[in-house]
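User: I'm preparing a small set of examples for a lab meeting where we compare how different chains pack in three dimensions. I only have the primary sequence for this one, and I'd like the structure in token form so I can line it up with the others. Please keep the answer compact; I'll paste it straight into my notes.
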Amino acid sequence: MNLCFAKCFKRLIPVGLVLSIFGCSPFDKPLNIGAAPWPNFEFAFLADELGYLDKNEYSLLELTSSTSVIQAFQTGRLDVAFLSLDEVLTLVALGIDLRIISVVDNSYGGDALIAKPEIKSLEDLKGHSIGYENKASGALLLDEVFTLTGFNNQTVELYEIKQNEVKDAYLKGHIDALIAREPVKQELLALGAKELINSSQLTLPNTNVIVARGDIYQEKELQIAYFLKQFYRAHAFYEQNTAEALTTMSVRLQLYPYLLEKAFLNTRFVPSKQALLRLSGSPSNIQLQAEQLSKLMSEKRMLGQIQTDLSSLISTRILERAIYE
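Assistant: Understood. Below is the structure token output for the 325-residue chain.
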């Protein structure tokens, strides 16, 4: 088989078949994929645990917080990242070229403001302290708290607390309320914390997506598509073998399986074909949602000016390959 024919042949057949025929990696170097802890992002790591991903071809990084993921993607350390839609817009406003390649889920209570037991309501927060992650979706929830109560940063004390610091901050007792994400939220509730408000009460849904760098997504299309296929394969394993999957994921997260199961209840996973529908069309569902969110964040002075046409941020081709090839 000459080199020209071999290249054409690879393009015509699915990745799995390529791997079985040639018995070696068709990819030049590993794809770097990153995410902060969140229930449905965990299927990427489950795919790795189940042996669906060749460790020579895929490097999965669990970073400690959304801020860390944003920074790693911004500096080119990551090729693919799991982010919330507002975090994506933050990167785009900074001039980062990216493509949204799939929709993971919506948070329906997975992000919440958690307080010490003696704080019974939002109004009780007056004069108290709140910890939140400034560059992440927690900022939107904090803004909702201010809208509902009329509070501002003069009424309460604000501290930037990254996701990996939330549990420790609560245990030390120096912060009165914290914006926590799943699965840490379940740990805090188990310790007696009180939930005051959550993401199900936001005007716009908190949607999580998968993005790829704009400078590599075409070059690494086959490699990214294979990753997506295994990500959804791991989710299928979870649905068919829930107890086993929860145990495997919980060991890695150092969390009780029942708490992780509760965490999943506060998310709505989007299956691959539904994700494709949300990315498709002109304008697509995700484009319309991004435009609404961009307008809201700009009005709240949470977002810089976006010069990019938001329709150009969306690519369906990779997900199509993952589903149909």
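A couple of notes for your slides: Confidence is low (pLDDT under 50) at residues 1-23. The chain has 14 helices and eleven strands.

User: Perfect, thanks.
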